[in-house]
Amino acid sequence: TGQWAKKAYQEAQKYGEAVAVASSADKTFSYIPDCSDLDIPEDADYVYICENNTIYGTKYKTLPNTKGHTLVADVSSCFLSEPVDVTKYGVIYGGVQKNVGPAGVVIAIIREDLITDDVLEGTPTMLKWKTQADAGSLYNTPPCYGIYICGKVFKWIKKMGGLEAMKAHNEKKAKILYDYLDQSKLFKGTVVPEDRSLMNVPFVTGDAELDKKFVAEATAAGFVNLKGHRTVGGMRASIYNAMPIEGVEKLVEFMKKFEAENA
Ligand SMILES: Cc1ncc(COP(=O)(O)O)c(C=O)c1O
C-alpha cells in the first residue's frame, strides 16, 4: 500500500521469505486492497500491514482477515488518533514523530506470547523484544528527553478526553477538508473516499505547474509542508492530532481563495 509497506517487504526478504499477498500499486496506491480473503501461505509467521499510509493518504478501515496468522502493523502515522483494539494484533509499532513526540522514540505493543528468546540467530541483543521487556525498556540508555515529551502528550490526550475525543476531533477536521475537496472544481483528493486517512490528505489540481504555484503561495501565506512527498508530487495536508480545527478551516479558506483566483 505504499512506500513503507514496500520497504518493510524488501527488508523482510533479507531475513526470510516474504510474499506480497495484496497490493494497490496498479492505481498508484490510491486505495486499500480487499483483504477479506487473501492467499496467505499456511506456514506464514505473520501478516504485515502499514495501517495508515502517510505518503498516499490511505487507511485500513477494516483490518485484513489474516486467517489466524499474527497481525503486525506499522501505525506510525495513525497511532493515538483513535481508539484501537490491541487484542486484534500481535505487534503494533510505530515511530512517535507524528502524533506523540519528537523523532527518536519507537513504541511497540507486543502480545506477551511473542516476547520470547526464540529469535533469528544473530539478532542483536538490544533488538530482542525480550531484552527490552525484561529491562522495563531500560536495557540501554533511552532517549529520555523524547520520552519525557511523549509523557506530556499522553497527559494532553487524556485532558482532551482520551482517544474517543481525539477521534471525534480528527474526524471533524478531516471532514472539513474532504468536503471542500469533493465539491471543488480545481482541487481533487487522490484517494477513494472509503479508504481516506484522517491524518494525511493528498490532493492535486491536475496541473503540475498550478500545484507548484499553490504550494508557493500557500507557503508565503504561512501554510508550511503542503508539498506532496517527493515521490508523488501534488499536495498533502498532514493534519495530525496537534493540528487544531482552525488550522484546517484556514487552509480551506485559503484554497477557496486560490480556486477563485485560478479558475
Ligand atoms: C508509516 C510510516 N512508517 C515508517 C516511517 C519511517 O519512520 P522513521 O523515519 O522514523 O524510520 C514513517 C515515516 O514517515 C511512516 O510514516
Structure description:
The structure is a single chain. Strand 2 (52-53) and strand 3 form a beta hairpin. It is built from 6 helices and 9 strands; from the N terminus they run αββββββαααββαβα. It has 263 residues and is α/β, with parallel strands linked by helices. It folds into 2 domains: 3-159, Type I PLP-dependent aspartate aminotransferase-like (Major domain) (Aspartate Aminotransferase, domain 2, 3-Layer(aba) Sandwich), CATH 3.40.640; 163-262, Aspartate Aminotransferase, domain 1. It binds pyridoxal-5'-phosphate.
Question: DSSP helix count?
Answer: 6
Number of domains: 2
Q: Write the element-wise H/E pattern from the N-terminal end onward.
A: HEEEEEEHHHEEHEH
**Straight-line N-to-C gap:** 33 Å
Shape: globular
Q: What Rg is obtained from the alpha carbons, in whole angstroms?
A: 20 Å
Low-confidence stretches: none
Which structural class is indicated by helix and strand composition? alpha/beta
For the record, the CATH architecture of the largest domain stands as: 3-Layer(aba) Sandwich
CATH class of the largest domain: Alpha Beta
Largest sheet: 4 strands, mixed
Could you tell me the number of beta strands?
9
Strand order of the largest sheet: 1-4-5-6
CATH superfamily of the largest domain: Type I PLP-dependent aspartate aminotransferase-like (Major domain)
Task: Bin the helical content.
Answer: 25-40%
What fold name goes in the CATH topology slot of the largest domain? Aspartate Aminotransferase, domain 2
* Bound ligands: pyridoxal-5'-phosphate
Average pLDDT works out at 97
Q: Which percent range describes the beta-strand content?
A: 5-15%
